[in-house]
Amino acid sequence: MIVIVDYKMGNLGSVTNIIKKIGHTSIVSSDIEVISKASKIILPGVGSFEKAMDNLRELNLIDVLNEKALIEKVPFLGICLGMQLLTKSSEEGNVAGLGWIDAKTVKFKLADYPELKVPHMGWNDTRFTSNHFLSEDYHDDPRFYFVHSYHAECENEENILTKTKFGCDFASGIIKENIMGVQFHPEKSHKFGMNLFKNFIEKC
What we know:
Number of helices: 6
CATH topology: Rossmann fold
Structural class: alpha/beta
Shape: globular
Helix content: 25-40%
Strand order of the largest sheet: 2-1-3-4-11-10-9-6-7
CATH superfamily: Class I glutamine amidotransferase (GATase) domain
Order of helices and strands: EHEHEHHEHEEEEEEEH
C-alpha cells in the first residue's frame, strides 16, 4: 500500500494523479494506523520548514514515520519540502528536522550570480550522481520542474542522488538506504517525473 502523508502542506492531488496515470493506486492519509500499514511512503510538501515540522508534531506523525523509515526500512520518498524535512535542520526557522540524512537545508546564496533570482523556478537539467534504481530507464537526459529557495547541503557525498546547476551545483536529490528525497517536483515533470515514480514504486 502506497501512502501519501497528509500533513496539511499541499500538493497531494498532483502526486495522487501521476501515480494513477502510471497504473498504481495510493492513499492520502494522516491516520497513524493507515500509515503504519504502508509498504511505501511519500512525503510531499510546499511551504515553510518550521510549519511543516509543527504540523507533523501536532498530528503525532513523527513516531510512526520514524518507525516505518528507520526500523521497518520501508521505501520512503520526500518531495520538495518533504525532502528538506529529511535533513537535520533548516535556515528557514529554528526547529530540528527529521534528521534521517546527514545534511542541512540552506538558502541559495547567489552573490556571485547577479543574473539569477531566488526562488529557483522552472525546468532544469538534472544529473544522477549515484548508480541507483531511481536513475534507470531515462531515454532522454532528465529535466525536472523546480520551485524553491532552499536546498540540501549534504555532509557526505555518498548521500547525494542528483545534482542540478543553479549558479553552482547543488544537491537536488538525496539518499540513504531506503530513504530518498528530491528537491524538484516529479509530479509536475511529465514523462521524467512519471519515470521516477515508476522506478520508486516498481523497483524498490
